[in-house]
Write a sequence for this structure.
């Protein structure tokens, strides 16, 4: 890995991030909501904010926040139910715009993506010019705004897109990159979550400059395989390419109950509905998986997962439900109610035709406090 971005072929990477995407779509489609604090989600006691407008964010309302907390922070908050079919349609429009400029697109979600425009620069003059054109096309064709980050790698492009939100653009050049990374608090680094940041703080690492002072051998002693990534980004280095085709590693679905569930029969019935929905999603994609993971969240928000892995792919919906029920059996009777149940199928591959396949399962369990 080169320590100097100028010593290798310099990529031109964009990170395009729609501004408050779900909420902005709702405000676009209903003019009466414009300029008002808005949350997309269910306003019921068990609801969660899926997205918040910038007007709501000023009150501290954020995505994934319980609806009750959001309402206490912003009593005038307006809730609207999500319309995912609309968001997907708008996202498809946006990705069609991306495709006019490059074929190397890595979606991260409905509202953000990396684009490698290295070769497109010969046509459009610069990566910054391409970012401006994309933002203008999005505004003209969807009525929405997007923020863009332009840099020579993914890590810095994503940081750059956050700099001038909303409706902004920021460029981090190869000359700027190392010092820009060094100036930031480690919490700002994408790829360093709250728990890792806390561990770094305990080691006296609070900024990119602090991180840069550590030898990679010492970082490995504390962070294992992730040390090389941390060592690089502290110097503005990220060699990961934009991946035009990402292989999906898992498919999952879950449900949150209106009232906590204590009855195993009620939980089993809910799990059957979850398994049916999950298998339908797998069937549409022509995939199955070898690992079934049950997710359980209790009334106190403590969460456990139980996984069962087999040699062959899960054969059908019945097989999926059987393994989910086997994973769920040990949790009943419960001392506290179950708030949420979910199933995930991972180790995915193209479906096999044999519906009678059986596999020996090994069960593992992990507990994650929330």
């Amino acid at each position: 890995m080169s320590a100097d971005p100028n010593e290798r072929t310099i990529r031109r990477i964009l990170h395009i991030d729609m501004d408050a995407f779900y909420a902005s779509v709702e405000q676009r489609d209903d003019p009466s909501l414009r300029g008002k604090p808005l949350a997309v989600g269910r306003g019921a006691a068990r609801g969660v904010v899926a997205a918040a407008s910038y007007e709501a964010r000023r009150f501290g309302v954020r995505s994934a926040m319980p609806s009750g907390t959001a309402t206490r922070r912003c009593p005038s908050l307006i809730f609207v139910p999500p319309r995912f079919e609309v968001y997907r349609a708008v996202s498809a429009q946006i990705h069609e715009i991306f495709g006019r400029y490059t074929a190397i697109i890595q979606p991260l979600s409905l509202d953000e993506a990396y684009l490698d425009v290295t070769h497109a620069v010969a046509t459009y003059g610069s990566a910054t010019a391409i970012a401006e054109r994309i933002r203008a096309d999005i505004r003209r064709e969807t009525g929405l705004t997007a923020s863009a980050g332009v840099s020579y790698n993914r890590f810095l492009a994503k940081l750059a897109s956050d700099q001038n939100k909303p409706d902004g653009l920021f460029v981090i050049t190869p000359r700027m990159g190392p010092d820009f990374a060094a100036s930031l608090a480690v919490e700002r680094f994408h790829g360093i979550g709250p728990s890792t940041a806390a561990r770094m703080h305990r080691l006296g690492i609070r900024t990119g400059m602090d991180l840069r002072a550590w030898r990679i051998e010492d970082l490995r002693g504390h962070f294992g395989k992730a040390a090389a990534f941390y060592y690089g980004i502290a110097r503005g280095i990220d060699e990961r390419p934009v991946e035009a085709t990402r292989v999906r590693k898992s498919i999952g679905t879950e449900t949150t109950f209106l009232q906590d569930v204590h009855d195993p029969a009620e939980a089993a019935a809910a799990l059957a509905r979850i398994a049916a929905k999950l298998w339908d999603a797998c069937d549409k994609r022509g995939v199955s998986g070898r690992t079934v993971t049950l997710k359980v969240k209790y009334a106190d928000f403590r969460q456990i997962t139980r996984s069962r892995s087999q040699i062959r792919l899960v054969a059908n919906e019945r097989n999926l439900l059987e393994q989910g029920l086997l994973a769920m059996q040990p949790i009943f009777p419960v001392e506290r109610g179950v708030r949420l149940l979910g199933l995930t199928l991972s180790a995915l591959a193209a479906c096999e035709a044999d519906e009678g396949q059986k596999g020996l399962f090994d069960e593992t369990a992990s507990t994650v406090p929330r």
In short: The mean pLDDT is 88. The first strand starts at residue 13 and ends at 18. The two ends are 38 Å apart (CA to CA). The CA atoms of residues 310 and 360 lie 5 Å apart.
